[in-house]
């Protein structure tokens, strides 16, 4: 079973992403963190089973997505996990900061509901179906 961590505080985007994964052809468990602190607890907990991919918003309560990314990519236990920034921010400074910190992809959330769901589905197809990862032993 594929496991995704969706870090999203917007309830509408959260529901659309879940629906997109449910409609997709890949068997996927979607775990949710609604703020950056919850995401870090999930990812850095001792003995935690890592997800195959993290979908991470930038604008989050408590700890923003850029700080979450920084901590995930700095930790030897989690730096191998692909992190896809799925955000409403199209700012160049955010894009550059995320790639500088090791983001694997940066996607600006489409405003249209169907386009948003298609983007999430495509993320799932690529990161869970096509992409091969090297996980530490």
UniProtKB/TrEMBL annotation:
PROSITE patterns from the UniProt entry: RESPONSE_REGULATORY
Entry keywords, A to Z: Phosphoprotein
Matches recorded under Pfam families: Response_reg
Ranges of residues in domain Response regulatory: 3-124
Keyword presence, Metal-binding: no
InterPro entries in the record: CheY-like_superfamily (IPR011006), Sig_transdc_resp-reg_receiver (IPR001789), TCS_response_regulator (IPR052893)
Modified residues annotated as 4-aspartylphosphate in this record: 57
CDD domains: REC_Rcp-like
Gene3D superfamilies xref list: 3.40.50.2300
Protein's name according to its UniProt entry: Response regulator
């Amino acid at each position: 079973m594929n496991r995704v961590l969706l870090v999203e505080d917007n309830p509408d985007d959260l529901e659309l992403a879940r629906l997109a994964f449910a409609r997709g052809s890949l068997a996927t468990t979607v775990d949710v963190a609604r703020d950056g602190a919850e995401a870090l607890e999930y990812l850095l907990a001792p003995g935690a089973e890592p997800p195959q991919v993290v979908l991470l918003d930038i604008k989050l309560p408590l700890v923003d997505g850029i700080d979450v990314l920084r901590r995930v990519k700095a930790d030897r236990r989690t730096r191998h996990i692909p992190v896809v920034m799925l955000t409403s921010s199209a700012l160049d400074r955010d894009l550059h900061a995320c790639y500088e910190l090791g983001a694997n992809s940066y996607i600006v959330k489409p405003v249209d509901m169907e386009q948003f769901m298609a983007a999430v589905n495509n993320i799932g197809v690529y990161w869970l179906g096509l992409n091969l990862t090297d996980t530490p032993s």
